[in-house]
């Protein structure tokens, strides 16, 4: 084997067997990439025509779905009550909850597309948990917006969003807890379904219930 | 007017030092129905949990979450607040909600339609500037020297170079316009608890501690020392409408996202204040 070839072989081997973490993306980069991607799609003039708008929404949702861990978010929002849910009920609730969260997030981002987002820093809570601090610069005052992220097999995923100190998951946990105290899981799922449908009527752009 | 505030102030102070939350937990609560309700609730929630434990565990073999509950526990602790005036609060919540949708929002929309953007920003800056004393005093009371220094410097620069505070040249600097400190936060800083949750008409969600804070803060506002009451109402109204004109849509999205708007707002308020006190 020529020395040159041996060298490239060695490099290849090194890359292949080295710990991939070195090359893995940092949580901050993942978040940055996701938000950039959303803005890119939002501002893409190729989607201007009405019949392509659906395609645009689909693309946006795919991006958001890939970035958030809705399954975990649902479980965290249920807290101790998750044990009262069967597997089927849980997946049903995850579906509706995910749709609702996606819609809220997208609406917020669309309405604030003029605002500037500043990525402040990332804070590694543990090896598998991180918090990314961002700030949205608005005329009404800057809003601290922090993302809690967790390392999964599919990379870093968002499991909570914290706006001005208010955790989204915690807020839903309170509401779910109060509802489930007196109601059954099925009733909560039904309420969630209604909520999603109502959101569609109020803001038909990018229907989510179908 | 001032007399009334004096009474609220005194009562608030009295109660803040004897937080009702803790009293309820021990015994002889001044609001017996409340403590009883709470403990009943907790007991039955526990019961529910134990009965459902058996059949559900087998169903969950899917992922890492079950053995990693501890992983997230510290993050999502429950932060409950006593709500002894629930019915009053809900009524006031509905009142404020209607006030916003029928009064404040259309007013702010009309106002922003006829007022140039630059003027609105100027008015916002002006009010921020004259409300400096309250922020300065509270930052000082909490020993946040950097913040109080930032407040003073911002005030002098904005009042002079910034043409009586209508412009905001201090914003360019890292020390300029530090985040707001109010008297409620100062009380919280010295470990005074929320007391209980209360919703005021016009003023919105608050707690016992923060209501005391509001009253305390009022005396540090230049508006409190204007003799003519009409002018005070006019200026406060302008400040509010001008402020809302920048925030149309915020309340709507919070309400739209909630399953139970009252509880969502209550929890958001408590979480937000806790964070503000911490920072």
Description:
The complex is a heterodimer of chains A (210) and B (279). Chain A has seven helices and five strands, in the order αααααβββββαα. Chain A is α+β, with helices and mostly antiparallel strands. Chain A has a single domain (30-202), classed as Nuclear Transport Factor 2, Chain: A (Roll), CATH 3.10.450. The mean pLDDT of chain A is 83. Chain B has 279 residues and is an all-alpha fold. Chain B contains 13 helices and two strands; from the N terminus they run αααααααααββαααα. Chain B has helices at residues 2-17, 20-26, 32-57, 69-73, 86-114, 117-130, 132-141, 145-160, 183-189, 208-218, 229-247, 250-257, 261-278; strands spanning 197-200, 204-207. In chain B, strand 1 and strand 2 (204-207) form a beta hairpin. Chain A binds chain B through residues 71-72, 75-76, 79-81, 83-87, 100, 104, 107-108, 111, 128-129, 138-140, 148, 160, 164-167, 169-179, 181, 191-192, 195, 199, 202, and chain B through 41, 44-45, 48-49, 52-53, 56-57, 59-60, 62-63, 65, 71-72, 75-76, 78-79, 121, 243, 246-247, 249, 253, 256-260, 263-264, 267-268, 271-272, 274-276, 278-279.
Summarize the structure.
The complex is a heterodimer of chains A (about 210) and B (about 280). Chain A contains seven helices and five strands; from the N terminus they run H-H-H-H-H-E-E-E-E-E-H-H. Helix content of chain A is about 55%, strand content about 20%.
List keywords for this structure.
heterodimer, A: 210 residues, alpha+beta, Nuclear Transport Factor 2, Chain: A, 7 helices, 5 strands, 56% helix, 19% strand, globular, B: 279 residues, mainly alpha, two-stranded antiparallel ribbon, 13 helices, 67% helix
């Amino acid at each position: 084997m020529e020395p040159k070839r041996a060298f490239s072989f060695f490099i290849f081997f090194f890359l292949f067997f080295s710990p991939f973490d070195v090359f893995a993306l940092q949580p901050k980069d993942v978040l940055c990439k996701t938000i950039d991607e959303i803005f890119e799609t939002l501002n893409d003039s190729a989607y201007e025509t009405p019949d392509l708008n659906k395609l645009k929404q689909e693309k946006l949702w795919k991006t958001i779905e890939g970035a958030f861990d809705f399954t975990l978010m649902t479980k965290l929002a249920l807290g101790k009550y998750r044990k009262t849910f069967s597997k089927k009920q849980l997946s049903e609730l995850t579906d509706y909850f995910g749709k609702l969260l996606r819609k809220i997030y997208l609406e917020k981002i669309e309405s604030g597309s003029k605002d500037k987002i500043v990525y402040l820093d990332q804070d590694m809570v543990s090896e598998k948990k991180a918090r990314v601090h961002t700030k949205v610069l608005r005329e009404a005052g800057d809003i601290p917006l922090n993302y809690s992220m967790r390392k999964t097999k599919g990379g870093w995923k968002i499991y909570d969003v914290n706006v001005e100190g208010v955790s989204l998951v915690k807020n839903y946990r309170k509401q779910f807890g109060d509802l489930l105290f007196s109601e059954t899981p099925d009733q909560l799922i039904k309420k969630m379904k209604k909520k999603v449908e109502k959101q569609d009527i109020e803001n038909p752009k990018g229907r989510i219930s179908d | 007017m001032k007399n009334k505030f004096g009474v609220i102030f005194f009562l608030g102070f009295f109660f803040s030092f004897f937080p009702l939350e803790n009293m309820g937990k021990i015994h002889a609560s001044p609001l017996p129905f409340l403590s009883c309700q709470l403990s009943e609730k907790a007991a039955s929630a526990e019961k529910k949990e134990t009965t459902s434990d058996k059949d559900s565990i087998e169903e969950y073999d899917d992922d890492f979450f079950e053995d990693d509950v501890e992983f997230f526990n510290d993050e999502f602790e429950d932060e409950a607040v006593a709500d002894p005036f629930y019915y009053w609060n809900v009524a006031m919540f509905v009142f404020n909600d209607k006030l916003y949708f029928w009064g404040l929002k259309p007013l702010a929309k009309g106002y922003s339609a006829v007022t140039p953007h630059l003027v609105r920003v100027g008015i916002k800056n002006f009010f921020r500037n004259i409300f400096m004393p309250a922020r300065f005093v509270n930052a000082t009371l909490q020993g946040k020297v950097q913040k109080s220094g930032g407040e003073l410097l911002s005030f002098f620069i904005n009042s002079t170079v910034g043409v009586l505070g209508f412009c905001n040249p201090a914003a360019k600097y890292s020390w300029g316009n530090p985040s707001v400190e109010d008297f409620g936060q100062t009380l919280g800083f010295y470990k005074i608890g929320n007391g209980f949750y209360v919703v005021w008409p016009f003023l919105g969600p608050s707690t016992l501690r923060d209501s005391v804070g509001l009253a305390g803060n009022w005396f540090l506002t230049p508006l409190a020392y204007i003799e003519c009451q009409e002018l005070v109402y006019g200026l406060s109204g302008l400040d509010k409408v001008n402020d809302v004109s920048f925030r149309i849509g915020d309340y709507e999205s919070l309400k739209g996202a909630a399953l139970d708007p009252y509880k969502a707002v209550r929890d958001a308020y408590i979480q937000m204040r806790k964070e503000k006190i911490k920072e």
